[in-house]
Amino acid sequence: RLEEGHDLGELLEHDHHSSSVLRLTGADGKVLFESEVLRSLPAPLPPDSHQSSTHVLHDVSHPEHGPFRFMSGTAQGKEESWLVQVGMSLADYHHELAEFRMVLLMILPVGLLAAVGGGYWLAGRALAPVHRITSTAQTISAKSLSQRVVVANPNDELGQLAETINGMIGRLEQAFDSMRQFTADASHELLTPLTAMRTEVEVALRAERPPEQYRRVLASVLEEVERMSKLADSLLLLSREDAKVVQTPKELIRLDALVQEVAGHMEAVAGDSGIRMTVQEFPAMTVQGDPDGLRQVFFNLLDNAVKYTSQGGTVALRGLVEDNQIVIEVADTGIGIPPESLPRVFDRFYRVDKSRSRELGGTGLGLSISKALVERHQGRIEVQSTVGQGSTFRVVLPLTDESKPIGGK
Question: Considering only CA atoms, which of 298, 299, 258 is closest in space to residue 282?
Answer without folding.
Answer: 258
